[in-house]
Amino acid sequence: MRARSRKALTTLQVSLVAFVIVVLVAAALILAAPTFMGGPSEEGIEGVKTVTITDSAGRNVTVTLPVERVVVLNTDAAEAMCILGSRDRIVGVSDTVASKDYLHMENLTTVGSWRDPNYEAIAELKPQIVISYARWPGSELEEMLTPFNITVVRLDFYKPETFDSDLTKLAMILEREDVASSFISWKRSMMDMVEDRLMDLQPEEKVKVYVEFGSRQWKTFSQGSATHQAIVAAGGINIAEGFNVSYPEVSAEWVLEQNPDVIVIADYGRVSGYSVEDYAGMEQLWEDTCNRLELMETNAVKNGRVYIVNSKLLGGMRTFIGELYLAKWFYPERFQDVDPEVVLRDYFELWLGVEYRGVYAYPPFTETTSFKQGSFRGVSA
To answer: Which of 116, 162, 204, 343 has the fewest CB atoms lying closer than 10 Å?
Structure first.
């Protein structure tokens, strides 16, 4: 009797030990599973797949995949969605996005402004995510949308130094990493070309550059602005780089004293852009600039080195194209075979998926070059 009891007890002990081992092994496996910060997670017990990224506001944001319904509050995010071939996932936009004719999103539901959206309108669209800038709107965006199980993703896209990272993170959310990689490689090929051709440029060969807001005389760009980054990347010396604010106001006397070799006017859509059909407005702005008494004695005006460019090419995700324009203007002998307009056309047609039209720079490039035959083509969205 005691032998049977001891045998039964032994069997129970073995079962308990086995159960404890199973539990410990399972716990160890769970603890050993990888944590994905900036990468997709494995499917959980319920088959839910997520991705966690660190957004432009420095927050760790987890998004459930797949993402099929998106609201975008600014044009930079809208362009990024197009680059990734995900235009069809956008279900709502801000009024600013709807107004941009090159995006062709005027028929989508509008949800107020990019800084003050209509939260009820957003909720009615039942998006999975809303994309906004890091700073705008404020924290009320999360406060108002979280109760509707809508995730806010803050990605800037307008800063050249973080654009590649922003695009890669959005691509992870949309599961379009291969497209993001292709676009970044295409973009990098042109930036590398500019860098390579300017590698042996001596300090005394560098041109001094003054870039002015097209709508505000004597307002310029200093360190901390995308335009300053473009000037430096194109091998120029920004005469305003010494200011401690990004967009300083200067005087006519100061500009004349600096005596720039090149003057560039950044036009904010008054005489250039997607809907502008001819160069008449840009030509007039060019003539007005050259005839300003305060500038007529500069080397730039004396030597005919005054240029007009659409401001979208000197800030945000198109800055790398603006660098091509600047580099060719600064050092034409080093970029004789380069036509930046071909790259801009490819950006619209291959990546945004829209017809190329409009005017963006003056004087226009007219020479036929080998670059026009597609030296940087071959990668499409």
So the answer is: 204
Are 316 and 308 contacting, i.e. CB atoms less than 8 angstroms apart? no
According to DSSP, the residues that pair with 262 across neighbouring strands are: 209
Domain-located, residue 37: no
Q: What domain range is 69 assigned to?
A: 50-175
Residues 275 and 151 in one domain: no
What pLDDT is recorded for position 23? 40
Model pTM score: 0.84
For residue 72, give the nearest of 99, 90, 95 by alpha carbon.
90
> How far is Cα of residue 359 from the mean position of the Cα atoms in its chain?
21
Give the pLDDT confidence score for residue 370 in this predicted structure. Answer: 34
- Flag residues of the chain having pLDDT under 70: 1-46, 366-381
Query: Which residues fall within 8 angstroms of residue 353, CB to CB, at 6 or more apart?
Result: 82, 85, 87, 381
**3 state SS of 373:** helix
What secondary structure does DSSP assign to 285-348, as a single string?
HHHHHHT-TTTTTSHHHHTT-EEEEEGGGGSGGGHHHHHHHHHHHH-GGG-TT--HHHHHHHII
Determine the Cα–Cα distance for residues 52 and 64; give it in Å rounded to an integer: 9
What type of residue sits at position 22?
A: V
CATH number at residue 94: 3.40.50.1980
Tell me if 60 sits within 8 A of 54, measured CB to CB. yes
pLDDT at 47 (0 to 100): 80
pLDDT of residue 43: 53
Provide the pLDDT for residue 141.
97
Taking the C-alpha atoms of residue 151 and residue 61, their distance in angstroms, rounded to an integer, is 8
pLDDT in tens, 21-53: 444 434 443 343 333 344 555 454 468 899 999
pLDDT of residue 46: 67
CA–CA dist 324, 258 (Å, integer): 24
Angle between helices 226-233 and 177-197 (to 10 degrees): 50
The kind and range of the H/E element at 64 are strand 60-65
